[in-house]
């Protein structure tokens, strides 16, 4: 049974910006880690912000633990947020942590909002959260500017888990860190999932980071999900041309090679002039698209549990085989 359900979610930022998300659907089960991957501007951050209600959705719905979050307004929405069931961990820990507060006060923010704890109980929860993320509680007297980048991201995670959430929504939580700190944060997230049973939605543009952490992965392009399924299957045998392009750009995840370079999966420029009438947003860039792809919206639920928004999903293996043969 799903803990978090996103059904046909759409978000617009006005006429100039247009539609940022359209018809996005995904689910997260208790204790599961779901990755969302896509290039910059694909709608990843908008998705997690809309899930927690920071960005209003203009179509679809978000349901968390039986509560339809997108139907909540005003006092009811504020009451829902106080429960702390979903916690968002931002990419830039320096900007997301109040520079004037101590680490202990930052970790206690959610507990203070929720209420119901004595000062000693709250202090115990703060120390417990800091220890969980591998920090000495003695750091509680310092301010964000007095600790390292890796420590700040751990503080942000401590603040999130202090309220004992059921879902963590992590928006590229390790992308601003050096390689060593990044690996430590990813290992920490995996440990928190196992020890606390918390589900995680992990936003990233780095397929390598996701490959060893997530159970399932969803691929966003132009605000639409083009493919989702078990991470080993999606990365190991892509069923959508855009996923294949991402995989070809990250050979370290061990997928089957698709050609000499990622550029092999890019089409001629004349595809960019195709009319677009609500079909596949990737059609102008797809090496396998036909004119119908630009006007007919694709969606296919496969027998293996993978969802592929591609008119050519059934013949994808043959097409890839022909492409691989022509390029090698």
Automatic annotation (TrEMBL):
<dbReference type="InterPro" id="IPR003439">
    <property type="entry name" value="ABC_transporter-like_ATP-bd"/>
</dbReference>
<dbReference type="InterPro" id="IPR027417">
    <property type="entry name" value="P-loop_NTPase"/>
</dbReference>
<feature type="domain" description="ABC transporter">
    <location>
        <begin position="4"/>
        <end position="247"/>
    </location>
</feature>
<dbReference type="InterPro" id="IPR050319">
    <property type="entry name" value="ABC_transp_ATP-bind"/>
</dbReference>
<dbReference type="Pfam" id="PF00005">
    <property type="entry name" value="ABC_tran"/>
</dbReference>
<protein>
    <submittedName>
        <fullName>ATP-binding cassette domain-containing protein</fullName>
    </submittedName>
</protein>
<keyword id="KW-0067">ATP-binding</keyword>
<dbReference type="GO" id="GO:0005524">
    <property type="term" value="F:ATP binding"/>
</dbReference>
<dbReference type="InterPro" id="IPR013563">
    <property type="entry name" value="Oligopep_ABC_C"/>
</dbReference>
<keyword id="KW-0813">Transport</keyword>
<comment type="similarity">
    <text>Belongs to the ABC transporter superfamily.</text>
</comment>
<dbReference type="InterPro" id="IPR017871">
    <property type="entry name" value="ABC_transporter-like_CS"/>
</dbReference>
<keyword id="KW-0547">Nucleotide-binding</keyword>
<dbReference type="Pfam" id="PF08352">
    <property type="entry name" value="oligo_HPY"/>
</dbReference>
<dbReference type="InterPro" id="IPR003593">
    <property type="entry name" value="AAA+_ATPase"/>
</dbReference>
